[in-house]
Every structure is written in structure tokens, then in C-alpha cells.
Sequence to fold (324 residues):
Amino acid sequence: MKMAAQGIPSTLPKGAPPVRHYLQFSDLNADEYAYLLERAAFIKAKFKTFTRHQPLVDRTLAMIFEKASTRTRVSFEAGMYQLGGSVVHLTTGDSQLGRAEPIEDSARVISRMADLVMIRTYEQTKIERFAEYSRVPVINGLTNEFHPCQILADIFTFIEHRGSIQGKTVAWVGDGNNMANTWLQAAELLDFKVNVSTPSGYEVDEKIASITGKISQRHFQTYSNPMDACRGADLVTTDVWTSMGFEAENEVRKQAFAAWRVSANMMAVAQANALFMHCLPAHRGEEVDADVIDGEQSVVWDEAENRMHVQKALMEFLLLGRLS
Ligand code: CP
Ligand code: NVA
Fold:
């Protein structure tokens, strides 16, 4: 867990909890995830019964988007308003971020006015540099390397439908990307297994994905054939073949990934009650067949909605710590 940069004089109120960032899944421990997942269920139940829950009145979330978004923007923005706070939305195009103001200066300034910062950007090092100079918690809303808020929502969704994920098997079919890396961090922390099948040349980089540097076979196994990765899995999941920032590779990737489309045949070799997830946006006929994503085993809409509930719990936790 990164702390605020040494030497930055604090104007935070006395007694405020130490600044904690959520830059990757490994920034919280298993015990904190147990709390957060329960808290998200509590917060979701309030929302579903139209019961006001506003612990963040007068607090402001700054959201910085250097890449496009639908779910992340709406879930953070709606969530913060529901918690009683407000939001400021910044993009590269409409702020000085796009005119080469140093990240360090942007962090110093924004974190004097906002109480929380969510950033969607390219390299993980950018968000790390921002966090180093921020007085307030910084949340990763997706980088090239990680997408921790999405995996938090996915695990919450799995638990809602099937109970504990500990000891279960997740099949990852497709690109060894930010989502795959984050699934692997979660597997190490929460003790489940990820079967990964990627085309050659698109493998997960274990140095990025692993918390410990080497993921044990209990948590990670690779398969050249996606059918083998899906065999016996409790959850089958995939993502776009071309992530944001890699658009120039689109045509080459379409060729390379053609056999990595999640199909009814792959679902058929998974557990009979296996779920299908996709962080969305999806391309039917590319990484997933329409009959799978629109089929009975798919929980993609719950997954999208749950972004909001888990992120509300996360924002509350980062600003106020554990509440009972
Ligand atoms: N899943 C996800 O992060 O969606 P957006 O890109 O729409 O935010
Ligand atoms: N891997 C995808 C996820 C989009 C939510 C990307 O980075 O574009």
C-alpha cells in the first residue's frame, strides 16, 4: 500500500486515516476484501430499497479520463452522488493534462481540492507518479496493466451468484491484458485458480501479474487450447481482443485470436452451472458468441451494475476506514 509522498505537508484534518491508494488489486489484503465485499452488499441493499446512505457529504471525487469509458464514468459518478458527494470530470482534451502539465504538479493541485481521485490512463507508472504526489487516495480506473475495480465487481458478482470464490476455477480466454493480470493478482490473494489460454505472443507477463513474482500452480495454469482452460471451470471470462491504446494492432489481433472466441462448446465443457462474465464493452462474433453473452449463464449486466456498488464501498473505505 503506497503512502502519501514523504515531505508533502499535510492539511488533512487531525485524526484522519492515513492516505491509502488503490492502484492495483494487491493494495488491499484478504481481510480488507472480506470487509469490502460485505460492505458492498450492505450498500447495494440500501440502494435497492431507496434508503439514503450518505457518508461522503461535502466530499469531492475528481475523475481523470485519458481513455474512453461508459461504465467506469457512470458508476463512479452516480455512486459518488449517491454517497452524498460530488464529482469533477476531467479529460486530457479539456484540461492542462493534455498540454503537458507535469503529472506531479497536477497531482499536487487536484489533491488540494478533491478528496479522492480516480484515474483511467495508459502506463501504470503514470498513476503511481500521480499517487506519489497526491495528498488524497487515488483509485485505478484502468491502466494498461490493471483494472482492479472491475475484478472487485466481478468477484462480488460471483459471490452473489455462487458463494465464496475460494478454491474455485476461473477460465480466462483471450488476451493476457490488464484484466488477466488483475484476475491473477486476485487469485493469489483470495486463493482461487485461473486457467489462462491466450494465443502465442499474447501471454500474461507473470512479472506484472504476480504479487510474489512467481504464481503457484494452485493459482495459475496455462493452456494452449482454450477448451482445456474451460474444462471444469466455475466461471468463464474473456475481454476484447484489442484493448484501448493498442488499436493499431487490431487487424493482426483478429487473425491471431480467431480460435479464442468463447463459444457454447467452451461453456459446455465448464461446470454445468458455470457463469460467463465479460467486463464490457463486448464484440459479439469476436471474443464471444452472441448465444453465450446473451445466454442464461451470462451475468454481464449484474457485473456492470456491481461496479457501482463495490466502488461506493471502496470510496467509503478509503476515506473513512471500516464502518460497522
Ligand atoms: N468495463 C469497463 O471498465 O467499462 P468502461 O470502459 O465503459 O468504463
Ligand atoms: N482490456 C480492455 C478493458 C476495457 C474495459 C481495455 O483495456 O480496453
